[in-house]
Amino acid sequence: MTDRGLMNNTIQNPTMLDVSGLLRGEERKITFDVLLTPELDVDGIEVNTPTRIKGTAVNLSGYMELDAELTVEYETHCSRCLAPINRVMTHRITAPIAEALENMDNEEYIIPESGNIDLSELARETFFLNVPMAHLCREDCKGLCPKCGADRNEADCGCILKEKDPRWKALEGFFDED
Ligand SMILES: [Zn+2]
Ligand SMILES: [Zn+2]
Fold it and tell me: Domain tally for the chain?
């Protein structure tokens, strides 16, 4: 059994992590650290720099596991005031690797195809599932005034926004019932 390292500049197709030796039990550890440009299609989010995924795939006496860290730098906008925001998402991925599953609905397993793990696809899926739905430029962002559109972080526009009396709110829907 051997250990093997896999770095970005030494492999031709960094998207695919060849784990066939691991599956056959000929290798016990593969180290990787690659930059990818996966298609990260999430509404309102732009990824303009390569995505990094680094980690190891190991075979511990037959039990195989992937342990990786995904780092994605992206641009988005504040959900309240629309200011541009740059964020970095770092997410740890740990999952057992299986050659095939009888029960295919077990999604926590990584199943290599023809001895390869598609790192690009893994990055895409992980990002999609873990990127926040909404972003705030800061925790207490006051947002834009719904009446005049002014950025209320910068100045109080002075608009009076009517809020419903909370006592009436409790009765909302009460009379709609049949
Ligand atoms: Zn904001
Ligand atoms: Zn206003």
Answer: 2
CA-wise closest residue to 144 among 156, 152, 134: 152
How many C-beta atoms surround the C-beta of residue 8 within 10 A?
14
pLDDT tens readout for residues 18-46? 999 999 999 999 999 999 988 888 889 99
Structure tokens at 114: 């023809």
pLDDT for position 41: 83
Residues 126 and 153 in one domain: no
Q: Percent of the chain scored above 70 by pLDDT? A: 80
Cβ atoms 36, 53 nearer than 8 A: yes
Domain extent for 98: 2-130
β-strand pairing of 27-36 with 2-7: parallel
The runs of H, that is alpha helices, within 6-118 are 20-23
What distance in angstroms lies between residue 43's CA and the mean position of ligand 2's atoms? 28
Which ligand has the nearest atom to the CA of 156? 2
Taking 70 as the pLDDT cut, the residues of the chain under it are: 1-2, 5-14, 102-107, 163-178
Ligand nearest to the CA of 139: 1
